[in-house]
Amino acid sequence: MEKTRCLIIGSGPAGYTAGIYTGRADLKPILYEGEQPGGQLTITTEIENFPGYPEGVAGTAMMDDLRRQAQRFGCDVRTGYIVEARLDSRPFHLKDDHGVEIEADTVVIATGASAKWIGIDSEREFYGSGVSACATCDGPFYKNQVVAVVGGGDTACEEANYLSTLCSKVYLVHRRDELRASKAMQHRVLNNPKIEMLWNSRISRILGTTLDGVTGIELEDTKTGAHSEREVTGVFVAIGHKPNTDFLAGQVELDEQGYIKIHHPSTATNIPGVFAAGDVCDPNYRQAIVAAGRGCIAAMDVERFLQEN
Ligand code: NAP
Fold first, then answer.
1. Sheet-wide strand order for 146-150
2. What is the pTM of this model?
3. What residues are labeled active site?
4. Each residue of 146-172: pLDDT tens digit?
């Protein structure tokens, strides 16, 4: 059984920042990268709004830098993820996907959030072969083709704009007649000649065969119920995210949307010694800079907790 003073779960800006701070505090933290090392920023395009990068920075480059910075201060960054957590008594007992068991005095949960899906059968059928939740990852497969993006928030608009640089045409399918995205993002989408808005529309079926892949989408007008079709070879779903808390098996208190409840302004959860930071407990701001700041607070909360206990 391994022992650590601080186990960090997750490798987005929150997890790595907690790793940097607890590392510098000489706590020799162990950090599990999780199923998507580097988190959501590794599947985004350029990050233009993180302070300190006047020319912008690629998400993967920023996450590489954060990982190396955490390692420089002694954070033990591990590939893999936590499959089991027993948080009912201290020290906490956790097990990783290789069966390694760890006893931890404190835990920082920074597991972020995952993409949501529309929930139709054909979406599952074509996942990975015509249906994607990541334009940056899969967009290059659709060069000079016609694709559809689903959603009306910043993510959908960002993905539609990015895909318009590669594809011949992008349909943006939104269930209402007004975008939820920020005004700046709306402006870019609505003035992009390669993007066509399909208002008041939902995808009722993704058309195609296993052999040919996706060939089109069947749309339903959300006001009239009328059906229509469009020819596309790719569908990008961008309708929001779900916090990654399943592995906690109900031990940490969550809100009605499944986000971890914390005692603001600290990062303390309902379990003394267990802290949470980043998108896993933030349904509102969900920005890299906010997650990094919360990771710093989590590390300071850990230090204080260890001093007091
Ligand atoms: P979001 O803001 O929650 O938007 C989700 C969109 O998907 C909404 O337009 C919603 O429609 C639609 N939707 C939800 N469920 C659906 C379903 N089952 N079928 C069809 N459409 C559905 O999520 P997001 O765009 O991922 O953004 C999340 C947060 O990250 C936001 O705070 C956003 O500002 C931020 N963000 C910022 C940037 C940036 O600053 N560069 C980039 C990306 C994201 P309704 O509008 O009808 O509800």
1. 131-132, 234-237, 146-150, 169-173, 195-198
2. 0.76
3. 134, 137-138
4. 999 999 999 899 999 999 999 999 999
